[in-house]
Amino acid sequence: MSGGEQPGLLPVEEALARLMRLAEAAPIGETERVALADADGRVLAEPLVAGLDLPPWANSAMDGYALRLADWQGEPLPVSQRILAGSAPGPLQQGSCARIFTGAPLPAGADTVEMQENVELEGDGRVRFCEPLKPGQNVRPQGQETRTGDQVLAAGTRLGPIELGLAASLGVAELAVRRRPRVAVLSTGDELVEPGRSLGPGQIYNSNRRLLIAWLQRLGCAVVDGGILADDLGQTRAALGALSDVDLILSTGGVSVGEADFLGLVLREEGELSLWKLAIKPGKPLTFGRYRGVPVLGLPGNPASTLVTFGLLARPYLLRRLGVQRVAPLGFAMPAGFSWSKPGKRREYLRARLENGRVVPYPNQSSGVLRSAAWAEGIAEVVEGTTLAEGDSLRFIPLSEILG
Ligand code: AMP
Ligand code: MG
């Protein structure tokens, strides 16, 4: 598997391991309490511990009739009370059953529920149980989901709809979360123009700014939009100097080999800089540095490279700074719907779809082609130094795994 590893090129795992160490050394540790309504996408700062049993009391899983099975001899039973969800029943009268509805508390003394479809009502209102009964059937016992004192979510969990629903089920109205990371986004390049303006000769529209800002917002970051940075030393120095109080500076472009890299120049002067050459495609040049103590990640400028390096490296880095342990996207082994005959020196991340259960790459995998990713459902990993025949399996990472 490592046959294609090239001296001088940093394997993806090694780059990720470095980034994890850097992230752990720069945690964004401050916390704040937010209402559940504002907690989606945030990272839990303290474990969520159940303050009550769930369910808090035994209740019926069905609309039907509750009885005490040990006292029942098989005869029809009179109905002694009617229990709706939200009511507080008295104890079950001996020798009777209770009409009960889904989610209603079981009366003390009852232990079994028969669903209404399996009973017959006698002329005198008594209930005949027609099917054999099992003790405890159709009863949701107190604490069957959670017991008071259980840890239901660990610190470092990312909160989404499910976690918010779970917290709500425990009556929790606010959660302690890590504060939002403040991330400055800079797009470098003299050729870049914002949408809405007209293009001059040699110019292109800035796609990375929108890509990254929307993505960072989904990740729960507060974005400081640094706009476009011209390829100019003075402007770069001024733009960096104007940034205050951010946790990360994220730039794109200007890291290609041989290009005058003004961000790099300023970082060397006023901070530190290391240039990594990654065994990743699209991607390869990645900058990690510090500006006045603030970490800087410089991603390659081609939009598909920005996508892949942000998704596979910068995103886990940011999440780890927030204390998230499980930062790796889930990937699945899927059969290739293509062959790969020339082993690569870099790990390739193909923008691909699943068609008939097979991985099909977009025909144009150029790093400048963002449309490949819009067409794709995921990225498929072709490991450096390997070949693939059709039907061989490779790792497929759904885009949904990294886009939030
Ligand atoms: P660079 O790393 O600056 O040499 O950029 C590599 C390629 O990505 C060039 O073709 C750039 O025009 C392009 N590029 C850089 N930044 C952006 C951007 N923000 N949006 C779209 N394309 C970009
Ligand atoms: Mg450039």
Automatic annotation (TrEMBL):
Q: Which cofactor does it need?
A: Mg(2+)
> What pathway is this protein said to act in by its record?
Cofactor biosynthesis; molybdopterin biosynthesis
Specify the enzyme's EC class, one word. Answer: transferase
Pfam hit, one: MoeA_C
**Domain of life assignment:** Bacteria
EC number assigned by the record: 2.10.1.1
Record-annotated MoaB/Mog domain positions:
184-320
Which keywords annotate this record? Magnesium, Metal-binding, Molybdenum, Molybdenum cofactor biosynthesis, Transferase
Reaction catalysis annotation: adenylyl-molybdopterin + molybdate = Mo-molybdopterin + AMP + H(+)
Q: Which PROSITE patterns match?
A: MOCF_BIOSYNTHESIS_2
Into which family does the record put it? Belongs to the MoeA family.
Protein purpose = Catalyzes the insertion of molybdate into adenylated molybdopterin with the concomitant release of AMP.
Protein name according to UniProt = Molybdopterin molybdenumtransferase
Q: What lineage does UniProt assign to this protein's organism?
A: Bacteria, Pseudomonadati, Pseudomonadota, Gammaproteobacteria, Pseudomonadales
